[in-house]
Automatic annotation (TrEMBL):
Residue stretches of biased makeup (Low complexity): 528-547
SMART domains: DDHD
Single GO molecular function: phospholipase activity
Protein name: Phospholipase DDHD1
Chain ranges of the DDHD domain: 430-674
The species this protein was found in: Eudyptula minor
Lineage: Eukaryota, Metazoa, Chordata, Craniata, Vertebrata
Biased composition (Polar residues): 587-596
Length: 688
């Protein structure tokens, strides 16, 4: 789509103006990523790049000054401080992560009508030089705000310039057209394709001198008030740049959501990738050397992905993984603060988004957990059991001696630790407090369960992650992600019967704020794993199986289709097949009765619940939740399933589907902007 006619912040140009060299504000710099189209830098960035370019001297229009010719120009910080531009080499590179592929930058002077894409720099320079030689000092006859002038068919050219494969005609000072001399010409092909011309030779393309919008220093990005470290899980050895691409996807979707819902706030959230895996040596190539050659591709893939879990459970390499992530988090934070000194002064906040195994390592860094502590707890338990049983006099005497010796050993150890700090007893420390810890597709709950964490009777997050370490823990998962597990039942057991909170679709009008959403029951009956089970279950209608409030939104028909396919597949292969399908196929099953109720479904469910009832919770005498045992804050948040996606296919793809989700972007920003929203009178969470 064509951009609007040229506009200037201070109003239009005078009607008659003399042709002169382009001002720094009229030139626009562009960058190109992944070999796509050229994208313009914002005014603030472009103006500063142009000033650095002119300071170069011979390369730029400015003459070299005495003694300064050899002086290197400082790289220009661009794109909200994430990248720097080296004007001399015309390249851009990221500040916070390594990237093999350089990002080319280009100086735009002449632009194609309609698309406002810049002409290639070589051609642009030739046209600009010719234009100044021929027309410098002449007056422009056309008003700046006038519409594109009439077609020039039959109009005589007053000047012409021959280029390698095309030529440029000046029909007047301000009417310049590019004509292709060879239809194979690359520039003509791209230009004519974009503009829809079929005959490149007969149809000229209008060119504009100077960009559609003047660059100003006011056109700058908002200040960063919140940084988010994005931590990858397994598999980065296999594809080292993956977390950088994933974070870029998350950043782009967050920008769209910011523009749509949070544009009234003067700050923004910045996402930084944390690539902790590639710097680690671990076992060197020992595992590769013991890998058999048959199906080598598959084995290499497993070595590069699933092997990370084995490294993490190995006492030999676990510390290396923890230190790798901890050092990278601290390095990034220190670097960010050194480049943004006002961030800490203004109370900038830090959140972490971790994926898969990254959640477990991040959790262990924050809490300082290590297997040695667990081993010490087990030893203590054994000692207590010893004390409880009957012992002979000799055994008691030896045990007392053992305890005295052990106590003495502990004292010596402590004195030694005082002289030389131990790496084991000292938990890894982060240089910042974590505001929100978002887990995506996280197996953390399984790790915690295997470490002996059991549900308590307090609804506080402190049971698994103290608020002094991290203000808020949020566990996000796709319903069919096979790697993800729930955290809430580890705090209060009866939450295994309460459905996770459904994440709102990003385009939902006036959604209910998450803190106002009431808990709703999950289906208390288990998914059938065989045909006989399913028959016995289906004969008993269960009107209370669908949650009262949330799940109705994403089409109940999918659950019936899903159920039918689960039953069909389960009848083919019992055993492991049944286990898998019961794992992937969990969902709210809905009886035809509840579908028919339509709008009154929620009320109908309430009435039926009173008569049929639900299995009582351990902490509750009735089928309803007692307010005394509710969680202080909900932790488990579930993405809504699509209406057409296949359960089994999404089980394969869902573990990596979080990065580009607009629903997740809105969810993250809702929690990160929470305090800003409360402080701003204009914005109100209810209207998002």
């Amino acid at each position: 789509a064509a951009l609007p006619e040229r506009r200037r912040p201070g109003g239009g140009r005078p009607r008659y103006e003399v042709v002169r060299e382009l001002g720094a504000e009229e030139v626009r710099w562009f960058y190109r990523e992944d070999r796509k189209t050229w994208k313009p830098f914002i005014g603030y960035d472009s103006l500063r790049i142009e000033l650095a370019y002119r300071a170069l001297g011979p390369g730029g229009p400015a003459e070299p000054r005495e003694g300064e010719a050899a002086a290197a120009v400082e790289p220009v910080c661009v794109r909200s401080g994430l990248y720097e531009v080296d004007v001399a080499s015309a390249e851009s590179y990221p500040v916070y992560w390594n990237q093999t592929e350089k990002i080319p930058v280009m100086r735009g002077q002449w632009f194609i009508d309609g698309t406002w894409q810049p002409l290639e720099e070589e051609e642009s320079n030739l046209i600009e030089q010719e234009h100044l030689n021929r027309f410098k000092g002449q007056q422009l006859q056309e008003s700046f705000d006038m519409e594109v002038s009439k077609p020039v068919d039959g109009k005589e050219a007053i000047h012409s310039l021959k280029l390698s494969r095309n030529h440029v005609d000046w029909h007047s000072v301000d009417e310049v057209y590019l004509y292709s001399d060879a239809t194979t010409s690359k520039i003509a092909r791209t230009v004519t394709q974009k503009l829809g011309f079929s005959k490149a030779s007969s149809s000229g393309t209008r060119l504009h001198r100077g960009y559609v919008e003047e660059a100003t220093l006011e056109d700058k990005p908002p200040q960063t008030s919140h940084i988010v470290f994005v931590v990858h899980g397994i598999g980065q050895k296999m594809d080292q740049g993956r977390i950088i691409k994933n974070t870029a996807m998350m950043r782009d979707t967050a920008r769209k959501i910011e523009e749509k819902y949070f544009s009234n706030l003067a700050t923004h959230v910045e996402f930084l990738p944390v690539e902790w895996r590639s710097k680690l040596t671990l076992d060197g190539d020992t595992v590769d050397s013991i890998t058999p050659d048959k199906v080598r591709g598959l084995r290499d893939m497993l070595n590069s992905s699933a092997m990370d879990i084995m490294y993490y459970t190995s006492p030999l390499y676990r510390d290396e993984l923890v230190k790798g992530l901890q050092q990278e988090l601290n390095r990034l934070y220190t670097l960010f603060c050194s480049r943004n000194p006002e961030f800490e002064e203004k109370g900038g906040k830090v959140s972490i988004v971790s994926h898969s195994l990254g959640c477990v390592i991040t959790y262990d860094i924050m809490t300082g957990w290590n297997p040695v502590r667990l081993y010490e707890q087990l030893l203590q338990k054994e000692e207590e059991e010893l004390e409880d049983r009957w012992m002979s006099y000799e055994e008691q005497r030896l045990l007392e001696e053992f305890y005295i010796t052990k106590q003495r050993l502990r004292e010596i150890e402590e004195r030694l630790h005082g002289l030389k700090a131990s790496t084991i007893s000292k938990p890894p420390v982060l240089k910042f407090k974590v505001e929100n810890f978002f887990c995506m597709g996280s197996p953390l709950a399984v790790f915690l369960a295997l470490r002996g964490i059991r549900p308590g009777n307090s609804g506080s997050q402190d049971h698994i992650l103290p608020r002094t370490i991290c203000n808020r823990l949020l566990n996000i998962f796709h319903p069919t992600d096979p790697v993800a597990y729930r955290l809430e039942p580890l705090i209060l057991k009866h939450y295994s019967n309460i459905s996770p909170v459904q994440i709102h679709w990003y385009n939902t009008a006036n959604p209910l704020p998450y803190e106002h959403m009431k808990p709703s029951f999950l289906n208390p009956t288990k998914e059938p794993t065989s045909v006989t089970d399913s028959e016995s279950v289906s004969t008993v209608p269960s009107p209370t199986t669908s949650p009262v409030m949330v799940r109705r939104h994403y089409g109940e028909s999918i659950t019936n289709i899903g159920k039918a396919s689960i039953l069909g597949a389960a009848s083919i292969g019992k055993g492991l097949g049944g286990m898998l399908f019961s794992r992937f196929g969990r969902s709210s099953t809905t009886t035809p009765q509840t579908l028919e109720t339509g709008k009154d479904g929620a009320e109908g469910d309430d009435k039926k619940a009173a008569t049929v009832g639900t299995p009582p919770f351990p902490h509750s005498s009735s089928g309803f939740l007692e307010p005394t045992v509710e969680l202080e804050h909900r932790i488990d948040f579930e993405l809504r399933e699509g209406l057409v996606e296949s359960r089994y296919w999404s089980a394969v793809t869902s573990h990596t589907a979080y990065w580009s989700s607009l629903d997740i972007a809105l969810f993250l920003l809702t929690f990160m902007y929470k305090h800003d929203q409360e402080d701003t009178d204009k914005a109100n969470l209810d209207t998002i």
